[in-house]
Structures are given as C-alpha cells and as structure tokens.
C-alpha cells in the first residue's frame, strides 16, 4: 500500500502530514505528488472537489521552496476569498515544520495595504483571488516576475465566474520558465484554452472519469411542478430530519425567499448570496461550519469554493444552466469516503435534461416518488421519539421536575404521552385524505396565500441596502421593530446593493408611510415609497444560454 514516505516527501513534510493524522495518500495525491517532486513540468489534474487536491500541489510546492530568498516563488490562484483562505490555512499546516516559511493570502474585502506590507516583508507563497491580485499588480504592490510555480485551482469555477481576462493578464506577468499546474473538477473548452495558451505539453492526470460525478453521491430526482418546489423541499426535509445540507437556487431573490420560508417553518436555515457583505457571508459560513445552521440556501456564485465537512445532502431547487455546475453542486457532498445524496427538483418539461446529465457525467439518476403525508408524519414521529429518548436529564432542573411530577402524579401514562404528542404535532395536517406529499407544519407565522395575494399587501421601496450592512433578516427586524409590528406583518424582504423592498398588509399602508416621513439614520434621510402596483423593479439581465440544448452540444464532446 502506498504511503506518503514512498512518494518522496521530505522529513519535515512527513512529520506535518503525520501530525495532521493522514496515513494514506488519496488517489490524486499518489498520482500527482511524485510527478511534481521529480519533474519540472506543466500538469493538468482533473479531480472532484474534496479529493485532496490542495495537498497534491501544496506538498511538492513546499518541498521546492528556497527559504533563503524573499521573492515570491509560488503563486496559487483560487476563485473565491473562502477558498483562498482555506488553501492558505491548509498549506500552512503542511508547512508547519518548515521554519521561516511565509504564506500570504490576497483577496478582496480586506485591507489591500496590509496585504501589500505582508508581501513586502517576504513571502514565499501567495494565494490569491484573480481580481485582487490583478489590482495589486496594477498598483505595483506585488511582483510575480520571479515565480517558479503557478497553480490554477478550481480552474473551471474561476472561468465560470468570468475571471478569464484577469487570469490572462496575471499570467502575462509571470516568467515563461515557470511550472504551471492546473486543477479542475471538469474540463470545459475554456479550461482547454487556458491549458493550450499558457502551458507546454502538460501531463494530464485524471482521477475517476473526466467530467464525471462523485462516486460517493447518490443522485436522485423528483418530478414536480414549479409551484410544488417548496412543498417538495419541505417533504424531503420531513423524511431527512438530521439533514445537514445545501439548497441551490438560481437567483438571489429565490434564495432569500426559500430561506425565509424555511425559517418561518422552524428550520435552522440561512441564505448566502451576492448581496451580502463579506462580513455577513463570513458570519453565515462560520455558523454553517459549526452546524448552528442546518441548511445553507445559496446561489452558485455565492457558494463557489465552499468546502464544509459532513454535508449529507445537496438539493437542486432548480437545475443550473450548465451541466458542469451540477458537478460542482453535487461535489459538496460525498467527500472523504462518506456517502452523500444529491436531489434535483425537475419539472416535466425539463425532464429531458436528466438524461443529458447522466450521459455527460456518466452517472445514474434515480427517479423517486414523493412520500405521502402519512409517510412523512410517521418518519417525523420516529425522529421525535428518538430525540426524547436521547435527551439527557439536567440535574439543575430537579427542583422544577419535582413540581411537574407532583402535577401529573395522578395522570395515566398513556394519556400523558398522548397529550405531549398531540401538542408537538398540533399544527400538522394528519387527515388521511391529505393528498400526495403536501404535508408540513402549518406555520402560524407564515402563509403563502396571505403573502402572495396582491390585493392584500402593499410593496414598499426603501433607500437602504447591502452597502449599509443590511441583509434580509436584519432589514426585516429593523422595519418590524421600528413600526412595532409582529414578525408575520413584514414579509417578502428583498435587499439590493443600494436599496431594498419589503411588503406589509394593506391595512398598514398609512402607518408605514407616516412613520418613515422624518426618519434620519447617521445623518441620512430614510426614504420609503409605495411601489407601483406592488411590483418590484429590477434591471433585466441577459439570459444565460443553457448547455442542455442542441445548440450547445459541442460542449459535451
């Protein structure tokens, strides 16, 4: 059996790897590390996220570093701040036994002067997002003209995010003599273009099948109508009460709405999308990592580079435009040898796309029937029973438990259990005639019917947004508390960069308009206006061409 020592790593790296608890290299590490240690070569590594790619390029780079020079020798480009920091942390751990090693993370949303100072003090490796690095090169704050190694990590994601021109510009500042290592989960034409233009006869290492889905993921789909998506999501959650997962939506507005509905239905959920500030995104992700949040509702852009352990499910609320994007979504689960589940909600008209995904990614998607209301309730009941059985008895509650015992000492045990169970499930529709999977807790705080009826609500514009450090939950709380309304009286909160929208019931129109007439915050006049016909106005975006159709077949060769 292959071990790290047999790969040719130095003693200091072996010591760090051992301390981290790694015994056996992954497939991509076994294939890539010997090549990068022994040969000066360009390399293209195709492997799914979560297969150990960072160590595959990080360990050889560390072994090649000359600690006697202060110049940057290694450059690693990653698509997001999140991944940038993650790579920096991992390589720092691998190099923990190397004295004087200096690694600097360069990314947007942080003080550029501080990052420049760290580099100037002497940096052996720079891990950067393309946008921030390009800016620093333009300002002459960083010199990458002497690097020996350049890594493009998650290359397909970087290109999907529109970083092609930035990457080209950055690579033009690097020496032609460097070794270029490109790592990607998929190999779309854009990645081929980068490899052809900036690499010389690269060695190609493929782990698994090119553009294939993760082996440890069970791919499933449900056929639902557009209106049934949330009900279907609620049903899936009902059958998987211990779920720890990501729900992917196509738009930030949809992301917001789904997250709000889930919260109102009692789930620990949070949204992450492009309108959140970096601090807000960091806060959400920290809560998700610590499992204070059970469900992360995300757009593809916001979720790029997220690497969180033990994700059990990925739910595709809508199908993505690109098949490669589905690979990235489903690759969030089924990591480190653990099994995961990827679920797609697909309409009848889009069912043909399932076959295209299967063919392209060489996977099998299983069509499942939505569980009945009775199945969901039975599953919830079993979960509730286990929760009760596994609840530890707190010793400091003994005085109060004595009161409870005395109050119920004459109660029949069966009646007592019936009462507790009935109270727990009092808001569930347990009518045997309940059709299909339309079962879920009837929230006392949220009603789709009430909210979606145009004649019963007013839509308001307010001149604050994400630049003012608001996201939908904080803005909702602000409006609700300022107007002294209850949680369900303010809904459909949508936060943009410079402005936002919220809805209230029609009866509160005068209250809203009058209350905000003379409000000033931080010497700024807060303006609230009634929108026309309750509509929300957003600039029209160009529709992204899907690669599912016949016109894009070239992408799937």
Structural class assignment: alpha/beta
**What's the average pLDDT?**
83
Any idea what the radius of gyration is?
Answer: 27 Å
C-alpha termini separation:
36 Å
Binned, the helix content reads 25-40%
CATH homolog superfamily of the largest domain: P-loop containing nucleotide triphosphate hydrolases
Number of domains: 3
The CATH architecture of the largest domain comes to: 3-Layer(aba) Sandwich
| Strand composition percent | 15-25%
**Assigned CATH class of the largest domain:** Alpha Beta
Number of strands: 20
Uncertain parts:
432-454, 534-541, 550-557
Net shape: globular
- The CATH topology of the largest domain turns out to be Rossmann fold
In this structure, how is the largest beta sheet organized? Answer: 7 strands, parallel
Output the number of helix runs. 21
From the structure above, extract its key features:
disordered C terminus; Rossmann fold; 3 domains; 21 helices; seven-stranded parallel β-sheet; Alpha-Beta Plaits; 557 residues; alpha/beta
Task: Explain what you see.
With 557 residues, the chain is an alpha/beta fold. It has three domains: 5-206, Rossmann fold (3-Layer(aba) Sandwich); 214-439, 3-Layer(aba) Sandwich (Rossmann fold), CATH 3.40.50.300; 448-534, Alpha-Beta Plaits. The chain has 21 helices and 20 strands. The strands form four sheets. Strands 3-4-2-5-6-1-7 form a seven-stranded parallel sheet, with helices on both faces. Strand 10, helix 12 and strand 11 (295-298) form a beta-alpha-beta unit. Helix 2 (27-38) packs parallel to helix 3, helix 3 (53-64) packs across helix 4 and helix 6 (130-138) packs across helix 8 (164-171). It is globular and about 80 Å long. The chain starts with 10 loop residues before the first helix and ends in a 27-residue tail after the last strand. Mean pLDDT is 83; it is low at 432-454, 534-541 and 550-557.
């Amino acid at each position: 059996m292959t071990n790290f020592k047999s790969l040719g790593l130095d003693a200091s790296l072996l010591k760090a790897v051992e301390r981290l608890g790694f015994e056996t290299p992954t497939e991509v590490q076994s294939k890539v590390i010997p090549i990068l240690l022994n040969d000066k070569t360009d390399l293209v590594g195709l492997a799914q996220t979560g297969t150990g790619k960072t160590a595959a390029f990080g360990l050889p780079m560390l072994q090649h570093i000359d600690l006697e020079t202060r110049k940057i020798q290694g450059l690693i480009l990653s698509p997001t701040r999140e991944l940038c920091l993650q790579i920096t942390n991992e390589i720092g751990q691998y190099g923990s036994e190397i004295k004087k090693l200096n690694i600097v993370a360069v990314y947007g949303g942080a003080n550029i002067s501080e990052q420049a100072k760290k580099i100037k003090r002497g940096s052996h490796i720079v891990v950067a997002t393309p946008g921030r690095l390009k800016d620093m090169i333009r300002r002459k704050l960083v010199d990458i003209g002497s690097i020996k190694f350049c890594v493009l990590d998650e290359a397909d994601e970087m290109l999907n995010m529109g970083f092609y021109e930035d990457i080209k510009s950055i690579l033009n500042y690097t020496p032609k003599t460097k070794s270029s290592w490109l790592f990607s989960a998929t190999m779309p034409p854009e990645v081929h273009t980068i490899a052809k233009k900036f690499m010389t006869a690269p060695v190609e290492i493929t782990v698994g099948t090119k553009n294939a889905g993760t082996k440890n993921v069970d791919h499933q789909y449900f056929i639902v109508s557009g209106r049934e998506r949330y009900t279907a999501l609620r049903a899936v959650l009902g059958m998987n009460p211990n779920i720890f997962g990501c729900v992917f939506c196509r738009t930030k507005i949809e992301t917001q709405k789904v997250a709000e509905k889930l919260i109102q239905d009692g789930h620990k959920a949070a949204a992450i999308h492009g309108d959140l500030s970096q601090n807000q995104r960091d806060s959400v992700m920290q809560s998700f990592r610590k499992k204070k949040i059970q469900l992360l509702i995300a757009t593809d852009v916001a979720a790029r580079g997220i690497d969180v352990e033990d994700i059990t499910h990925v739910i595709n609320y809508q199908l993505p435009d690109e098949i490669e994007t589905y690979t990235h979504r489903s690759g969030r689960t089924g990591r480190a040898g653990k099994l995961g589940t990827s679920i797609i909600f697909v309409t009848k008209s889009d069912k043909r796309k399932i076959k295209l995904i299967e063919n392209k990614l060489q996977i099998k998607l299983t069509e499942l029937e939505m569980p009945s209301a009775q199945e969901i309730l039975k599953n919830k009941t079993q979960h509730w029973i286990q929760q009760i059985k596994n609840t530890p008895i707190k010793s400091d509650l003994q005085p109060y438990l004595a009161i409870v015992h005395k109050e119920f000492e004459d109660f029949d045990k069966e009646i007592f259990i019936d009462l507790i169970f009935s109270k727990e499930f009092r808001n569930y529709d347990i009518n045997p005639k309940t059709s299909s999977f339309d079962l879920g807790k009837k929230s006392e705080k949220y009603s789709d019917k009430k909210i979606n009826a145009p004649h019963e609500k007013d839509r308001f514009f307010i001149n604050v947004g994400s630049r003012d450090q608001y996201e939908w939950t904080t803005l909702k709380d602000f409006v609700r508390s300022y107007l002294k309304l209850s949680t369900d009286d303010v809904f459909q909160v949508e936060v943009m960069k410079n402005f936002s929208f919220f809805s209230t019931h029609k009866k509160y129109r005068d209250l809203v308009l009058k209350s905000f007439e003379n409000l000033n915050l931080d010497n700024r006049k807060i303006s609230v206006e009634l929108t026309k016909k309750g509509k929300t106005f957003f600039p029209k975006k160009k529709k992204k061409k899907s690669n599912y159709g016949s016109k894009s077949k070239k992408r799937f060769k």
